[in-house]
Every structure is written in structure tokens, then in C-alpha cells.
Amino acid sequence: MSNPILAQFMNELLSGRLKLVDLTQTLAPEFPTIVLPPEFGQAWPFRIEEISRYDERGPAWYWNNFSMSEHTGTHFDAPAHWISGKDLPDNTVDSIPAENFIAAACVIDVSAESAENPDFLLTVDYVKAWEEQHGRIPERAWVLLRTDWSKRATPKEYLNMAEDGAHSPGPDAEVVPWLVRERNVHGFGTESVGTDAGQAHHLNPPYPCHYYMHGNNRYGLQCLTNLDQLPPQGALIFAAPLKIRNGSGSPLRVLALAPSA
Amino acid sequence: MSEALVKPKKKNPVERTRLATLPPGARSRSAQGLTRAAAEGSFELQVCADCATVQYPPREVCGHCLSEHLTWEPVDNRGELIALTTLRHSNDLYFRERLPWRVGTVKMAAGPVVVAHVHEDCATPDTSGVPVRLSLKLDRSGQAVLHALPEKDTPNMNDAPQMRESTCDPKFRRVLVTDGKSAMGMAVAKAMLDAGASAVFLGDPTTWKTVAAFDKLAADPRVQVVELDVTDTDSVDRLAASIGGKVEILVNTASYLRDGGILGRKDVILARDAMEVNVLGLMRLAQAFGPGMCFRAADGSNHAVAWVNVLSIHALAALPARGAWSASMAAALSAAQTLRAELRGAGVRVVNIFPGPIDEEWEQLTPPPKLAPSAVAKAIVRGLQDGVEDVYVGEIAEEIRERLRENHKGVERELGQ
Amino acid sequence: MSTEVSTEVSTPVSPVARKRLGYDGVVAVMPVTIPYARYSTHSAHWWLGRALGELIRGAGVAKTEVDGVCVSSFTLGPDTAVGLMQHLGMSPRWLDHIPMGGASGVVALRRAARAVQAGDAEVIACIAGDTNQVDSFRNTVSQFSRFAQDAVYPYGAGGPNASFALLTGYYMKHFGATREDFGKLCVAQRDNALKNPHALMKKPLTLAQYIDARPITDPIHLFDCVMPCAGAEGYLVMTEDRARALKLPFVRIRSTIERHNAFPEDPIQFRGGWAMDKDALYEHAEAAPEDIDFLETYDDYPVINMMQFEDLGFCAKGEASAFVRKHSFTIAGDFPFNTSGGQLSVGQAGAAGGYLGLVQALRQLTASAGATQLEGARLGMVSGFGMINYDRGLCSGAAILERGLTRGEAA
Asked: How many domains would you assign to chain B?
């Protein structure tokens, strides 16, 4: 007996009333990776080498080797990624319960503010104002910050480095614990290279999104794209990281289901 | 006097590119002693330890007293050109394309009589000889040859076609500096421009990073900034597809230096990163740029000529405090030796630079003496102009090299303290 | 000192400790030339085999009667004289391989004569020959010697042209020789060659043509150079008794010399080993330069002819130019010289070039030189020069030969 709900779901999808949006950036060597001070170990960027391509290295087949860090390209942050989440249960990509890989999403559009001010910080007040317009953030939902950062054409514009470091939008130090405590969110996602703002090392605590989200066993998504194709409320996110033993995160394909406009 | 080289005209795009040919490269094992001296830019011949007779051509046994104790020693390079001829015919493909060609007989002050290439600024001997200096240089086959040079330097000496065959002068050549954003890269770019390079392709591995000095250098109309990350095969291939046919000298300044030995770390990430840049980067560049350079190795007076690897003296002797990096340097040297063999068929020279510590951010804690990047860059240019293939830069490099010859175990122990 | 070797500078005159034996009872017979070809598809074995065949058939001896063989060739490799013996089905009891280039003919005669005299062999065939395939010359030059490989060939790969250009230039500057002097010799030799059916050069040469020829390697021009070709030469050495029994015209050996690496202290070659040994040569022959009726020298370049005039005592050092200007060198001239035309006009068939003068001298002294025949030649001199190992020719040799029985007398 087929399940009527899944059958209806497929019908909705096939009829086009539901659309599937790919929130994933293409993995390519030139895609920027987070830059730490050079004395720290660095996350490997995406690198790819052909093993063979219908040639003397393999006449009938094409395949590649690739290498990258757990935090390269569009990727998932597990709680174990941050020190605040290091002792929590099920805090690595292999131990996170599979049902956590599906969740609703709220998309907060701060693209206009970010265009004006690359250091724009999301505040509690801003979220409250957003809720007044789009409704309350439901329990266990992803909060995705639309900044249109994914539309920046070059690595230079995307990382937006100055002598005092990167400049990109993110949450402030108050809104993150508020989202966890008051809204019981599933995690936080961004278009930029980290879930925290470019200048987040100056906040208290530094990198509050990492600190509070992971400290409360919540998740992070970054380097997302196509957030402009999602409604403020009502999208469903499939975000299942690779099952890396004790992995702190993983590149992944992030898919969103949303009603067609 | 030699005429000053003029900037080559733009190439006729429908003309066939002349392929590289090589001068005769066969040598006996003894004659390779000349190659070593030439490769390092010194002038040495065999000297008999028993009777002090200077030997030439290289021998197994002293031609005077039959002692088998012949050692390679620096000798007086002065001599008298007593006979001179201009070849207008040769059965060898390489020389046929380069006629007329001057060779002569030089009676050395040190004793032997040698046949040498004769610089066009040397006068023609009459009943009395013409004083000359002899210089050992590597020819396009990578083997040592003797050049008779005028007693004193003359203007544009290095521009003489015969000299261009044994040197790799940057004058009017286009140079790719693979990492142009490092202090070393910028210094090399400047030195190349000062030496008359017609263009510098300045590699930028971190386009997201703004470096004021780099931007200033990039404003020079002879400089063209190119994206190049040697750890990214795609990036290397893309660049080679774009400018591979224009690179006449490649200076690989891409470098990854971090402190740390082997036991002190829990991972090999640093080591792997060093290998990625210092070794695999070199190999990627070689695979992408090598064939194009070989193809253009006889293409006009500014043909592709040299591949320069900026290594370290620690390629020869590990510095355990930077063990992983030292290993990558040794591996890079080994790769460079293979590359040298592979490029030799086209006459493209691989020049390895062995500096001591350099005054740059990753050597902050290294006590002086440290080399300014500009000093290393000057040494690179000089090495290319002189036509050598191994350049040791600075007192520390010289000392380690010297002591490696004396007692390599001692060097090993001392560097490990 | 690990070694106790005397390094006293050699005196320019060879010290002869003991009186040398004469070559009494030994003769050279049967001069043979296998006509030269500019290029050949055959190997050296073919040319050497033909020469041996001509010698055996011409002398009327059985193949098995030739019990000694002396071989010279540059292109026989990888074989040596030994391999050639199996190739030719010979079982000699005496075998020599003489790699002395232009000195081979004279040196072979010395070796063979002593072997026959001592009874080590009865009939010795001396043969020299080379093929000339399109790449032979370049290969021979590039692999000529270790010193050449290490210290000459990389310098323009000019081969012997370059080496001779240097010493020719030096000789001209120091001794006043001119291109006209060289040209006079070349023109005379060409004149002689026109009478020699074996000569590859068939057209007359004028001095103007010589002077105006294309420069090859200054001051060497086209007609200063020999033309590499394929060919073979040979002769037999046996006892006089045997030659008489076989009714073969023969030539007696009055004296011979050889020398290697003479004057190593000379910064550049302006004299050859003959200068060390010429007194011994004449003394042994009990002859003087003026007794010599004709001279066949090794002539790969004209300058070396000039040195031979001087070093063999026909004029003093530095006076060859005056000597050349004073004499005429044709067959009909007052100093008959290189009567075959020499290598400059006949061609240089590799090691056979080292036999050319000797074989021609045997013809002259047996009255079988055809159109090149000199009237009444009694004493002839042959000299050889070979092996530019590094910067100079190392081997020198010479022989004074005397008419024995001419063709008419033998028959």
C-alpha cells in the first residue's frame, strides 16, 4: 500500500505546484574557502585531478579524485565543530539523527541592508519585526539569512577582505542565543563563507553563531545560494552531510522544497 | 664591439616555429668535471696533485708524470688566442643554423692549449696572440664549453649571439613569476624588469587579498597580473593555455614555509601543504608550461630559455626545526633534477637557486644574516646572465655547501642542534 | 710521488741507439686500387674484400698463401680485422689492425716488412678501405676520439676543417704562406689527377677558381678540402725471391720512420713528427733529399703538404712558400708531387687515403703508373700523417722506396 501523503507529495512536485530549489554552490577550485590567519592550519580548498577521461589512463571511463576540507564549499557545521559543542551527544555528522536532516526554513532577507553595509548584523529587534510581517519562526526550523552574498562575482568581492579582515553580514551576539532559547531553532544558515559575520571575532563572545548554535547542539549551513528563490516561510530543507566518522561538518547538497510562487 | 640586442619584432604568426636543436652533447665521464664547474659558475680544470700540471682535455692520468691523482681546481683563466677561425660550414644541425661561428685556439697561462668558442669582441690574432679570458659555460645541450672572452668586459657583451647560446639573459624575454605576491616574487619581478625583461607575468595566488606593493608593481605597463595558484591544476592549466606560448623564463617563487619538525605535530597537514606548493606545484607547472617552452626553445633571439626554481640550501641538508618544509625542498630539488633531464632535450635550462635564510615573514625568528629578497632576485638574474644552473646565495648557503663537501655528517648533526 | 716517470723534453732529433736493420730481401708488390665512389651503399667489408680479391688474383697466389693481413678502416665497426678475417674466410698466421688514418700505409709497410723479414709470415696483404654512406662522415667525425668528443666537436662540429683552419691560419701568419701558394699545389695536383682514371675530380682547376671558391672555415676554402668518398687500396709484402718467382714487379724499401704525438709542447701544430726523424730516415736510406725523384705526401689540406716539404728536409722550416714558388709540382714538373692527384683531387676514401700515396709510389717505381708515369723514377718518398685526435695530427710516417723490378723487366 502506498502512503497517500507521499503520493500526494510526488504529485505536487510533478505538477510543479511544489518546486525543488538547489541551494548548493558548485564545487570548483576557485571557490573561496574561509581564510584564517596563516599561522593556523587552513581548510583545504576544493581540488580535483582527473584519474582518466576515456584516454590512456582509462579508455572507457572518466573519473576524478578530489580533495577538500569538511568546511569547503556549501557545507554543514556539526556541533562538534566548535569548542562549545565538543561534549554534546550526537554532535558529529555521523551521529546526528537522520531526521534532523529535514527541517523547515525561514528566510530573513537582509540583502538590501547588506548591500548598504557589508558589516550588517542581524538583531533581535530585526527578527521580531520580520516575524510581525511573516509570522513567528516555528520550532526546529532553519533560520537562513539572505544577503545575496552568493551573487558576488569574484572571490575578492565574496571574501571582501580589508586590512582589518573580512567584511560580511551575520548575526549579532544577542540574536543567536535568543533564537535558540526563544524560538528553539534548528540551526542558522548563510550565503557567506561562515555563519558568523566577517568581523565576528570582535563580538562578545567572538563568533557568537558558532558559539551558541553549536553549544546548544544546533547546526550551521554556509555558502548557500538561491535563497532569493525561497519564500520567507514555508520551505522545507534537505541537508544531509556526508557520514564522516567523527566529522565536524561536511560539504553537501542542500535542497529546498517550496511552493511555487 | 657587439651590437646591442634589439627588441625582437612581433612574430609572423604564419611562419613555422623553428624547433630546438642541440650542440653535440656527448662527453666522457672525466669531462663532466667541466660541467660541474660550469654549472656552478667556476673555472676549474684538472690539476695533477703530484706534479701540478694543469690538464686539458680532461684525462684519467696526468699527461706529464702519469700520476692518477688528478683533482679539479680553480685555475688561472687567462690565455692568449693564437689562432682563430670562422666556421661557415658545419655538418651539425645546431651549428648549421647558427653560422658563421667563431672558434679559436687559446694557449692558457696555466699551460694547456684549448679550443674555445671565441667572442666576437676578441681581436683577431696576428703573429702575436690576443689576450683573452676563458670562461666555462653550459651550452644548450647542458654540457660545459669554453668561451674565450675579451680581456676586459665590452659593452653589450652578453648580447652577442654566441653568448646568448650559453646564457639565459632576461633581456627582451617574457618572464612568468609564479607567485608574484610574495616578497620574493615581487623582488624577482622587479629584478627581471631591471634586467631588460620585456614583460613580466605576475602570478596572483590570492586574488582576494590586497597587497599595496603588488598593486604598485602591477601598475607598470610591462607587468601583467595573472591568476595562478600552483596547488590548483585547473588554475595552472588555464594560465598555460592563455600565456604558455609567451613564457620564455619561468621563475617559480611559489613557496610554502612553516616551522615545525615531524614528532612535534600530530598530523602531516603542514607537510602535505608544503608538498602541495613546493613539490606538486612545481610538477603541475612543469606539466602545463614545460611542453610550450620546449616548443619555443629556438624561436628567435628571445626563445624560451630557462626554468628557475627558488629552492633553499636546506634542499641539500634538512633543517629539523623546519623538517616538513625541508623534506619538501629536498623533494623539489629531486623533481627539478628530473625536470632538468626532461627539458634538456630542447635546451631549456633548469636553474636551481639555493639561498640561505631570507628576510621575510616566515623567517622572522631566524637570526641574521638573512638575505633580502632583492639580493636573491639579483643573484637569480646574474645566474641567468652568466648561464649557470646552480646558484648558492648568501654566506649561509655558501657555508653549508662548502661544509657538505667536507663533512656532510657534521652538517647534519649541527643543523639538528 | 706515486710514479717515477722521466719527463725530460724530447730532443727534436730522434736518438738512434742502435743501427737499424735494413729491409733487405723484402719487397712491396701489386699496387691495387678499387675505384672510388662518392657514396656507396656497401659496407667497408665489401671494399676491403674487393681489394684483397684483386691482390690475390693479380699476384696469382692462392688465397691460403696469404698468411698475413694488415687492415686499416674507420667504418669497419663493430668489426675489427679479426671479424673481417672470418667474413673473408681467411686464416692468417699474422694479423694487424692499424688505426692510424693517414699514416696507415707507411706504418703497415713497416710492420709487414719486418714480419716477412723475420719469417713470421710469407705473404702479407696490406689493405685499407672505407665505405661512404650518406651519414658516414658525420658519424666518423663526431665519434673520432675521446678528446675530439670532449674538447673539439662541441665547438662548432667543424670536424677536421676547423682543426686545420686554425693551424693553417697560424701557419700563414707565422710563415708567410699565402692562399696562392696553397692554390699552386692544388692546381698542380688537379693537373696530375686528370691523368689518373681513378680520380673523382675530372675537371681542370684554375688558380682563380681555387681563390674564388666558397669559404668553408676561414682560411679554408672549398678546394682546400678533400671530398670524402668510398674506396680501397692495397698492396702485398713478400720476399724478393717470392716476387721474382711470381714474376711480379717489385719495390724495395730503403728506409721508414714513424712517430706519434711529436712536439706536444708546441702550442699549435706547425710541424710534424717527420722533423724528429728525418735524419734517421735519410741516414738509413743512405740518401739525401735531392736524391728523391718524386714525393707523395698525405694531403688532406694543402698546409700539411707545406709542412712535409719542410719537415722532410726539402726546405728549411718556414721556407715552404718560397719552395712552392720556385718549383712546379706536376708530373712533368721539376718536383713531381702527389702524382695521382692526391686526396685533394682523387678523393678521400677514409683510411684508404692513408694508402693512396704509397700505392701510387709503388706504381711509379714498378713503371705501372699509366698516364701518370714519371720517366725514370728510381727513388720515391711517401709520407703519411694522421689522426687529429684533439688539436693536431698525431701520427707521422715516411718511407723511401726504390725501384726493384719494373713491369717490363718482370714480365
From this structure: 2
Considering the domain architecture, whether residues B352 and B409 belong to the same structural domain is answered as: yes
d(CA B156, CA C162): 27
Instruction: Read off the C-alpha cell for B350.
Output: 633548469
* CATH code for the domain of B84: 2.40.50.840
Same domain, B155 and B188: no
Q: Collect contacts of B408-415 with beta carbons under 8 A, ≥24 apart.
A: B408/B317, B411/B317, B412/B317, B412/B318, B415/B314, B415/B317, B415/B318, B415/B319, B415/B320
pLDDT digits (tens, 9 = 90+) for B85-125: 999 999 899 999 999 999 999 999 999 999 999 999 999 99
The per-residue pLDDT for A35 is: 85
- Is there a catalytic annotation at residue A81? yes
- Asked if chain B contacts chain A via 3 or more Cβ pairs within 8 Å, the reply is yes
> The domain that contains B199 carries what CATH number?
3.40.50.720
Across C125-147, average pLDDT = 87
Q: Which of B353, B416, B363, B364 is nearest to B41 (CA)?
A: B353
Cα–Cα distance for residue pair C303/A212, rounded to 1 Å: 99
- Report the alpha-carbon distance of residue B300 to residue B97 in Å, rounded: 12
Contact C347, C356 (CB under 8 A): no
Shortest Cα distance, chain B CAs vs residue A22, angstroms: 25
Mutate to test the interface with A, among B181, B232, B265 (most CBs of A within 10 A): B232
User: Which residues 378-397 on chain C approach chain B with CB closer than 8 angstroms?
Assistant: 390-391
Task: Give the predicted TM-score (pTM) of the model.
Answer: 0.91
Cell triple for A117: 553595509
Is B13 domain-assigned?
A: no
Ordered strands of the A254-259 beta sheet = A18-22, A254-259, A235-239, A102-109, A141-146, A187-190, A219-222, A75-77, A249-251
Alpha carbon distance B210, B326 (integer Å): 29
Q: Which among C66, C58, C61, C112 has a CA at the least distance from the CA of C88?
A: C66
Neighbouring C-beta atoms of residue B275, cutoff 10 Å = 20
Kindly list the residues from chain B whose CB atom is less than 8 angstroms away from the CB atom of residue A39: 258
> Comparing C142 with A35, which gets the higher pLDDT?
A35
Domain holding B114, by residue range, is: 32-166
What Cα–Cα distance (Å) separates residue B90 from each residue in B261, C159, C210, C240? 57, 8, 20, 48
In the block, residue with C-alpha cell 702527389: C338
- Average the pLDDT over C171-185 and give the result: 97
Mark yes or no for CB contact B85/C162 under 8 Å.
yes
With a cut of 70, say whether residue C407 has pLDDT above it: yes
Select from B136, B166, B196 the last residue of a domain: B166
Q: H helices then E strands: how many in chain A?
A: 7, 15
Contact A144, A108 (CB under 8 A): yes
Residue B309 contacts residue B390 (beta carbons within 8 Å): no
Q: DSSP alpha helices (H): ranges in C176-237?
A: 179-193, 207-212
The 10 Å Cβ neighbour count of residue B266 is: 6
**B105 located within any domain:** yes
Write down the domain spans for chain C.
26-135+229-235
B239 and B379 co-located in one domain: yes
What one-character DSSP code corresponds to residue B9?
P
Does the domain at C26-135+229-235 match CATH 3.40.47.10? Answer given as yes
Please report which confidence band the pLDDT of residue C18 belongs to, taking 50, 70 and 90 as the band edges: confident
Contact B105 C267 (CB under 8 A): yes
What CA–CA distance (Å, rounded) separates C24 from C239? Answer: 9
Q: Cα(A135)–Cα(A128) distance, rounded to whole angstroms?
A: 9
Which of A71, A75, A81, A186 is flagged as catalytic? A81
User: Among A192, A142, A185, which residue's Cα sits nearest to residue A168?
Assistant: A192
Closest C-alpha among C352, C374, C356 to residue C365: C374
As a whole number of angstroms, the distance between CA C308 and CA C320 comes to 9
Q: Do the domain assignments include residue B42?
A: yes
